[in-house]
Amino acid sequence: MLVLECPYCGVKAEETELSPGYEAHLKRFGPGSSDEEFESYMFARKNPKGVHFERWRHVYGCGKWFLAARCTATLEVFGTYPAQSSEPPADLVAKIKAKRPDWKGYK
Amino acid sequence: MKRYSVFAIAREAMRHHTGWERAWRSPEPKKQYDVVIVGAGGHGLATAYYLGKNFGITNVAVIEKGWLGGGNTGRNTTIIRSNYLQDPSAAIYEKARSLYETLSQDLNYNVMFSPRGLLMLAQTHHEVRGYLRTVHANALQGVATEWIEPARVKELVPIINIDGPRYPVLGALYQARGGTARHDAVAWGYARACSAMGMDIIQQCEVKGVRSEGGAVTGVDTTKGFIGTKKLGIVVAGHSGQVADMAGFRLPVEAVALQALVSEPIKPCMDVVVMANTVHGYMSQSDKGEMVIGGGTDGFNNFTQRGSFHHIEETLRALIETFPMISRLKMLRQWGGIVDMTGDRSPIISKTPLGNCFINCGWGTGGFKAIPGSGWAMAELMAKGEPGALAKDFSMWRFKEGQFIDESVAAGVAH
Ligand SMILES: Cc1cc2nc3c(=O)[nH]c(=O)nc-3n(C[C@H](O)[C@H](O)[C@H](O)COP(=O)(O)OP(=O)(O)OC[C@H]3O[C@@H](n4cnc5c(N)ncnc54)[C@H](O)[C@@H]3O)c2cc1C
Ligand SMILES: [Zn+2]
């Protein structure tokens, strides 16, 4: 069972208290962008077998969105951080690198 | 290949079953093939089979990292139907369903196709309208389905509760020739027939890299070394994104876990398949007597073949109003598979940026029923280099072009 710590209220929330929101740090494209950009934003989501950055919502708690780094191959949660981050915090990236030396890093 | 027949059974019975041969060979890979298929699930094996049967291409290897049929093909709840709304879906699923009718004879292998009838319950007024529309569309497509009233539902499914307070049964979309088949047997039957045509099925051999030169694939690096090929077919379901990545292109596919479970075996009580899409659950009874139950997918990317327990609870909770008797059943086993979901929940049978490389994926939660039709269409695509009538709408570029297939074929509910 997945347990993620809500970075706002500090609650270690179990999966049924949360609602998943797929890929984090999406670059949004709107009117005027190319077909490729729009396709990549809408459909070509990152789908790694390994470290994945994603959105979650503490839906039955404080109700806020937050972000998490999680391994899709083992369900290990590396850490969570506020949704107001434009990329994963450096200390979290370092922590993941230490645990997964062959991880190619956040792009 | 020695044919299976009633005479073979009699002969073997007389000599203590010493004369049965292995169903398929386990050869070492050759250096080079005309076609290499990655993934020995139902879709990969069916592709190989129809390449041989329809196009005479038999210098083929099917490469599998685990054991054949050990992916979603051996993990699904085996529901077969073709009552879809849109023409491209109805065409390929009905092609598949009709091939299932004679698949046992064609393969000389009993796939236990059981067209026992399938009901999709309408439990909201919205569903009533939706299914009436589907019945009309199916009539135009030549797919035999009908709308039935609650009393007829009760007749077909005596254990059902049609006047639940939250989800009363308002009728159903009924496909009399829908049903189930034995999942392993479908994989095994195709594998045996492929092997008999001289194709190599190579198990315990993982593809680790795809080599290409000047926009064309030259072969694959595997745990058993390099294997050269003139054409490559990628048919790996949940791992499609990973293998596409090796070949250097990106797919609009995400992997999530889908679960199913079976109850303890009980006496025969339901001889049709019942799907209840509003509550996200469906049920049929296996030949062993177990109630086979499926539900929805988890909502996050997952490669573990293990789903969240609360989804099982949700599925059962939802089904209990409609099937009160299951509240007293013990559930025996539960398992998960990694399904490949596309943006419009319809499959991909397509050319790729590499000229001689083709992809078949995105069947998501509902591709068992499609195996024969998908293999048929994929074989045509690989043999001719261009998609035929069945595959043409399932291009991987439809997401860029906005040519979606407006139908949640894979629904997010297993079936
Ligand atoms: C719980 C559950 C219930 C379902 N119920 C139904 C149902 O009732 N009706 C229905 O129609 N569909 C159902 N489905 C969906 C159906 O199972 C799939 O759509 C279908 O089996 C996909 O077949 P496939 O051949 O594409 O994939 P798979 O059977 O998964 O085969 C892909 C194969 O590729 C192999 N592979 C992956 N990567 C590599 C690599 N790098 N090298 C070599 N080999 C590799 C895998 O090991 C695997 O064996 C269900 C699925 C699940 C999980
Ligand atoms: Zn919170």
Automatic annotation (TrEMBL), chain A:
Gene3D superfamilies for the chain: Folate-binding superfamily
Coiled coil residues, start to end: none
One GO MF term attached to the UniProt entry: sarcosine oxidase activity
One Pfam family per UniProt: SoxD
UniProt-listed GO biological process terms: tetrahydrofolate metabolic process
InterPro entries: SoxD, SoxD_sf
Protein name in the entry: Sarcosine oxidase subunit delta
Automatic annotation (TrEMBL), chain B:
SUPFAM superfamilies to which the protein is assigned, alphabetical: FAD/NAD(P)-binding domain
Principal EC category: oxidoreductase
Family stated for the protein in its record: Belongs to the SoxB family.
Name under which the protein is recorded: Sarcosine oxidase subunit beta
Swiss-Prot/TrEMBL keywords: Cytoplasm, FAD, Flavoprotein, FMN, Nucleotide-binding, Oxidoreductase
Any one of the GO CC terms: cytoplasm
Compartments in which it is found: Cytoplasm
EC number(s) recorded for this UniProt protein: 1.5.3.24
